[in-house]
């Protein structure tokens, strides 16, 4: 689903806002699940369960997913939650209208 979304974005198709938000939420979920799976693998290994994943792999995978989560969260907040600042072009257009 996400690659189809990115393909349409690359082709300059207008994507509805609700779909953009949904894809970003799915990405955040994917990164959260990745962190959780690594946490559980760590806990299993700590409890002596058989797990073929090394501690280094768990650590670096967790770091990767956590960083991606942070990046997607930042993107979500900037793109969908923050108000857009007024640009200089808009300010200049308003001044011209008021004259």
TrEMBL record:
One Gene Ontology term of the molecular function aspect: fatty acid elongase activity
One GO BP: fatty acid elongation, monounsaturated fatty acid
Gene Ontology CC terms: endoplasmic reticulum membrane
InterPro entries documented for this protein: ELO_fam
Alphabetical UniProt keywords: Fatty acid biosynthesis, Fatty acid metabolism, Lipid biosynthesis, Lipid metabolism, Membrane, Transferase, Transmembrane, Transmembrane helix
Catalytic activity: a very-long-chain acyl-CoA + malonyl-CoA + H(+) = a very-long-chain 3-oxoacyl-CoA + CO2 + CoA
EC number(s) per entry: 2.3.1.199
Domain of life from the UniProt record: Eukaryota
Transmembrane segments: 21-39, 59-81
Membrane topology designation: Multi-pass membrane protein
A Pfam family it matches: ELO
Root EC class: transferase
UniProt subcellular location: Membrane
PANTHER family assigned to the protein according to its UniProt record, in alphabetical order: ELONGATION OF VERY LONG CHAIN FATTY ACIDS PROTEIN 6, FATTY ACID ACYL TRANSFERASE-RELATED
Family: Belongs to the ELO family.
Name of protein: Elongation of very long chain fatty acids protein
